[in-house]
Write a structure and sequence with these properties.
The protein is α+β, with helices and mostly antiparallel strands. The protein has helices spanning 8-58, 88-103, and strands at 68-73, 76-77, 111-118, 131-141, 146-156. The chain has a 5-stranded antiparallel sheet. The protein is elongated and about 100 Å long.
């Protein structure tokens, strides 16, 4: 007499194959999610860097005052204090630092840096010089996993 159906061994083998398949799919979803989060973080950093460069480029008189750097310590960015009595440059830098701390993954050792320098030579930036300047914004996040460096050359006349 011939019976139809599955044996217990066939059912266990089928469940094992399905379980391994689900584990593989779950692994791919996890990797995809991590990659997506990294891309979102890089886009946030690019947007912030563009905003900083546009603001610094528009402020021809105060460009040389924007050079500054912040390094995280213990997972917190040590931003300069914000005061309404500060000069506009100091207020902007404090706001940028706070915005970056709020919107980015912060790990010990992350850096946020704004640098304004002459295009050629090693002399420091001077507001009395008529020259070309390089505005450089360097942001890294997530322990160096995500990094954005943007530079723009601007011409400044006295």
């Amino acid at each position: 007499m011939k019976e139809s159906g599955f044996t217990l061994i066939e059912a266990v083998v089928a469940l094992a194959i399905i379980g391994i398949s689900f584990a593989g799919v779950f692994g791919l979803v996890t990797i995809s999610d991590r990659s997506l989060q990294g891309a979102i973080e890089r886009e946030r950093m690019k947007m912030q860097a563009r905003q900083i460069i546009e603001t610094v480029a528009a402020d021809a008189v105060g460009q040389c005052s924007y050079t500054g750097s912040w390094v995280t310590s213990g997972g917190q960015v040590s931003c300069p204090p914000f005061s309404k009595t500060d000069l506009p440059v100091s207020q902007r830098m404090a706001r940028w630092c706070q915005r970056m701390e709020d919107g980015l993954t912060t790990v010990k050792g992350d850096q946020r840096q704004i640098r304004v320098r002459p295009l050629s030579g090693s002399q420091p930036c001077s507001s009395s010089q008529s020259s070309q300047r390089v505005i450089e914004v360097r942001l890294n996040s997530g322990g160096g996993k995500s990094q954005v460096v943007m530079k723009q050359v601007v011409y400044v006349s006295p």
